[in-house]
Each structure stands twice: as structure tokens, then as C-alpha cells.
Amino acid sequence: MSTPSATPGTSSPVAAPAVGHASVPDGAPGGRFGALGPVGLVLAGGVSVQFGAALAVSLMPRAGALGVVTLRLAVAAVVMLVVCRPRLRGHSRADWGTVVVFGIAMAGMNGLFYQAVDRIPLGPAVTLEVLGPLALSVVASRRVVNLLWAALALAGVFLLGGGGFDGLDPAGAAFALAAGAMWAAYIVFSARTGRRFPQADGLALAMAVGALLFLPLGVVESGAKLIDPVTLALGAGVALLSSVLPYTLELLALRRLPAPTFAVLMSLEPAIAAAAGFLILDQALTATQSAAVALVVVASMGAVRTQVGRRAGARRERRTKAVPDVP
Q: Residues 6 or more apart from 85 whose CB is under 8 A from it?
């Protein structure tokens, strides 16, 4: 679950409707062949996010789900504030309202997701969570073909739940779905914050808001455990793997990688999460659950490609109309 311009468990909030970043034409430097480097950066960011989530799951017995979220947000907020040094003056009330809602969405997304992975395996949790950005992409596109992608995703969810979530803890599944809804809200307010604040200033401020919101919850659940040196070190590792490192890698990648490619790569997060759960937490998926994850990944990628194709067609149409007829 990445966050800056991604993401469920996490990950990057641009996951589904990731349009709006500058894209690079195929023939330009950093295009079709030059994008191999940035693709590696994005995939490394996705791996970092999901393995950070796996580390967070292993930390929960020591600090609790709310305590882990508090540590992740607090450490990441401190790092982002130090690096970005955002300006606090000169912003309107609407600017601050946007960044506060963005921070609430961030806190809700992380809190609900960590409640989910405390109850169900990491792969299924991210699969259910990614339905939020997928639904946002389908609604934003308003194309009939996206009903096919939505049906494919629902088929994956049906398989994942064994026809009624008998194989998954119902509360965990509900938390994952709620985290997906907050992820969709995160995407919307991430874009709005980006338009109102320069560079990553809005993200740093929103992360500080989220950390302050979660601090009382973490203290109530975990108390002095939050300042235990081992717990604090592991929490810092979660923050670096799940927030700071992927943000940096994705920022570097987006300078040369077309946004559509970035969005499709973000759709692979459920598969990466399943691999992280298996390798780190020994959470093996059944054949049915693996098929469910694959269906949701395909549906996410298809929805993104449809959305990107629609916007590319609209741009071509505008360019065609802008060129006068030559007799």
C-alpha cells in the first residue's frame, strides 16, 4: 500500500486513475526502452511497500495494529517534514481544509488496512482494498466496457470469499473493503492537495495531520510499548519501507515514466502482497485464492488501460480539431 501518487496496503494512491503526470513519448529519451529503469524503480517501490506491510504484521504482537500505524505515520511524517520543510504561511482556509481531509483519508486508509491484515492474510487484504481505486476508475471512465472489468473483479472477490467469505474473517474483509473506500478518497484528495501545494509540501503536512490523529489511539492501545527501542526501530523500518522509500522511488520514476505505465504497474500490488505474505509471513494462498487475486489484478489493469485509452483518444480528437483543413 503505497501512498504518494498511489497505493493500499497501500501502496500508491494513483493506483487506478493515475492520469495527470507528465508522460514520455515512446520515441523520446526515457520512452519505450529508457522506461526500463523507471519500471524497475516502480516495482522496487511496490515490493518495498508490501514487504513493509509484512514487517508491520510481524510487529503487531509487540505494538498492536493501532500502535504500528502510529509509528509508521509518525516516523514518516517527521522524515517528510524535515526533507520538504513545507511553508505554513500563505495558504487559504480552503487549502488547509483540503490538506486536513487528505490527512484524515490517509489515517483512515492506513488504520483500516492494518486492522484488516491483523485478521486476514496480506494478499487477500490488498486484493479487497484495491477494489476502492478500481471502483473509482470505473466510475470516472463511464464506459460500458468497464462493467466487464467490474464484473471480473467481483468474480475475484466471490472466489476470494469462497462464495460468502467463509474462508476469511468477515471483520477483516470488511476492514479491507473500508480501507479501499478510504484509498479512493485518498486518491481524490491527493490530487486536490497536489494542485494547492508545491512539490510534496501538501503530502508532508497531510502525513503530519494523520500522525497527530492516530497518536492518541496508538498511546491508548500500546502505551509505553511505542517507545521500546526494539519496537521503535521496527516501526521506523515499517515507515521507511512503506512510505519514505517508495515515495522516493516513485518520484524518481515518474520523471521519466509515462503515467499510464505507472498506473498499470500499481495494479500488480495484490500479487506482490501475496508474494510478501508467503515469503515473510508464511501465508500461502489456496489455488482458488490465487485465481481470485489474478482476476482482480487483470480487472485493475484492464480498467486502467481503458481509462488511459479514453483520455488519449480525447487528446487526439482535440489535436485533430485544432489543425485547420488545408485545401
A: none
3-state DSSP assignment of residue 298: helix
What cell numbers appear for 125 in the block?
A: 487484504
Residue among 298, 305, 255 nearest 38 (CA): 255
What is the distance between the alpha carbons of residues 270 and 125, in angstroms, rounded to a whole number?
8
Does the pLDDT of residue 188 top 50, yes or no? yes
Contact 286, 308 (CB under 8 A): no
Nearest Cα residue to 80 out of 192, 193, 211: 211
Whether this model's pTM surpasses 0.90: no
Task: Give the pLDDT of residue 149.
Answer: 72
Query: What does the alpha-carbon distance between residue 199 and residue 281 come to, in Å, rounded to a whole number?
Result: 36
Say if CB 49 and CB 43 are below 8 A apart.
no
pLDDT digit string (tens) for 22-72? 333 333 444 443 445 777 887 888 888 888 888 888 899 988 889 999 999
The region that residue 44 occupies, defined by phi over 0 for left and psi between -120 and 50 for alpha, beta otherwise, is alpha
**Region class of 78: left (phi > 0), else alpha (psi between -120 and 50), else beta:** alpha
Sign, Cα dihedral of 311, 191, 186, 245: positive
Tens-digit pLDDT profile for residues 81-119: 998 899 888 889 999 999 999 999 989 999 999 999 888
Torsion of Cα atoms, 318 then 324 then 326 then 327, to 10°: 120
d(CA 283, CA 304): 29
For residue 30, which amino acid is it?
G
CA distance 178 to 129: 8
193 backbone dihedrals φ, ψ, rounded to 5°:
-65, -40
Cell output for 110: 492506513
Please report how many Cα atoms fall inside a 13 Å half-sphere around the Cα of residue 227, on the Cβ side: 4
Q: In terms of residues, how long is the chain?
A: 327
C-alpha cell read off for 77: 511524517
Residues 177 and 203: their CA atoms lie apart, in Å, by 24
Radius of gyration of the chain (CA): 20
